[in-house]
Each structure stands twice: as C-alpha cells, then as structure tokens.
Design goal:
The chain has helices at residues 17-31, 42-45, 47-51, 98-112, 127-135; strands at residues 7-11, 57-63, 66-76, 79-87, 117-122, 139-141, 158-163. By secondary structure, it is an alpha+beta fold. It has a 7-stranded mixed β-sheet. Strand 2 (57-63) and strand 3 (66-76) form a beta hairpin. The protein is globular and about 40 Å long.
C-alpha cells in the first residue's frame, strides 16, 4: 500500500525525541488508560542508546513535520524485537498505509542487517494490532520461544514471531 500524499516514514533523528514520547504516552495513557510513564520506559527516554545500536533502528511516521507514528527494532542477536509500534488514531487503518509503511521499513532494515526473525509482545485487548501482525505473516508463539534478552512488558499477553528469509 502506498502512503497518502502528506505522509512519509523517516529514520529517527534527535529532534523527534520529545514528539515520539508525547505520541506514545498519549496513546498509552489517553487511549488505553495505562498508568505507564516515561520513567517506566527507559527505551523511550533515550531512543538512540536503546535502538540505534547494533542492528537496531527506529523510524517515525511523519505528516509534514508532525510525528504521527513510530516503530523501533532492538537488536537481540539473531533476532530483532519490535517495540514502540504506535500510530496516532487519526492515521490508523488501511486508508493511510502508515502502519504498513512503518512495519515495512523495520522489516526491510531487519532483512538488510541479516536478522533471522523479528519478535514482539502485545496485549489481549489490542485485537486490531494482533490482526495486523497476523496479516503480515507473524505467528503466535509461546513466551518460552522468546529470544534471550526479550524485555517482557507486564501488560503483554500475546507474543509473535516472523521468520525472515
């Protein structure tokens, strides 16, 4: 799917940091009522130190200069860990193509860097997100199949893996 005209996916830059944090916290707290704070998320508080190392990466969805989406890839050895996949409510759904473009940027990077798989954790109540991952080839896995070093969030109840060719 092609992005609508004003949207684009761009690698994270330092000046995006506060906008990414605001977007993520707005969705976590405002939409989902999660009590999580910036202090609870050291990866969000310092994106370069967590994501821009090894074979990791971080991308933002932009509408002009406004950050409206994010996705990160942590390097966990043979496997990457997808984190911080968030899209502002006004930009969700197949109409914009933003979520798909963010995921494709991450998967393209993971393949280019030679990662064998990408894993992720999500919540029971995020049914649309789970369907999105399943449509993109992710398969449900048991938590015992998670890679070493997978930082399990206490709210995560469903885990997925996509093996990369």
């Amino acid at each position: 799917m092609t992005l609508t005209a004003s949207l684009r996916v761009h690698p994270f830059e330092a000046h995006h940091a506060s906008d990414v944090a605001a977007l993520v916290l707005h969705i976590q707290q405002g939409e989902f009522g999660s009590p999580v704070t910036l202090a609870d998320q050291p990866d969000l508080a310092d994106i370069p130190a967590h994501y821009l190392v090894g074979r990791g990466g971080f991308w933002v969805g932009l509408d002009g200069a406004k950050v409206v989406g994010s996705v990160g890839l942590l390097d966990a050895g043979d496997c990457g860990i997808l984190r911080k996949m968030f899209v502002h409510a006004d930009y969700r759904g197949r109409g914009t193509g933003l979520a798909q473009a963010l995921l494709e940027a991450l998967l393209g990077h993971a393949r280019e860097k030679g990662l064998g798989a990408v894993t992720l954790g999500t919540q029971e109540r995020l049914r649309a997100a789970r369907r999105f991952y399943e449509r993109n080839g992710f398969r449900a896995i048991d938590p015992a199949e998670l890679p070493p070093g997978f930082l399990r969030m206490k709210v995560d109840t469903h885990f997925y893996r996509l093996d990369l060719p």
